[in-house]
Amino acid sequence: MKFIILAGKAVTLFAWGVMLYNLVAPVEGNIGLLLTILLAITVVMHSLQVLIFHTLFKSLLPLNKADYLQVLLFGVFSLLDYRQQVLASEKS
Predict the structure, then answer these.
(1) With b meaning 16 or more CB within 10 Å and e meaning fewer, what string describes 42-55?
(2) Where do the H-state alpha helices sit in the chain?
(3) Based on the number of CB atoms within 10 Å of its own CB, is 65 exposed (0-12), middle (13-18) or buried (19 or more)?
(4) Cα–Cα dist 24/80, whole Å
(5) How many angstroms separate the CA atoms of 86 and 57, rounded?
């Protein structure tokens, strides 16, 4: 599971890079427009995931700004990582 989370984070980081690069040097045609729309959707969805993260994990783990930033950047892959941390702490 750890490999899947790491691979997902790498793909997500690459996608962020492509979408942000499109803002600096826009791609011609429909692809550029699609990348801009995908960036907006990604920002909205990851912001909702930060809200979910705060609601679910604030009572289970000590959280700082870096934790929220990770969820904003990596979305569900960070949520899965923190979920594993909670499950591991409950077993001990």
Answers:
(1) eeeebeebbeebee
(2) 2-24, 30-57, 65-74, 76-91
(3) exposed
(4) 32
(5) 8
Query: Phi and psi of 60, rounded to 5°?
Result: -100, -30
Contacts of 52 (CB under 8 A, 6+ apart): 79
Residue 38: exposure state from Cβ atoms within 10 A (0-12, 13-18, ≥19): middle
| pTM (predicted TM-score) | 0.86
Token representation of residue 20:
């942000």
- Per-residue pLDDT reduced to its tens digit, 40-89: 999 999 999 999 999 988 888 888 999 999 999 999 999 999 999 888 88
The single-letter code of the amino acid at 23 is L
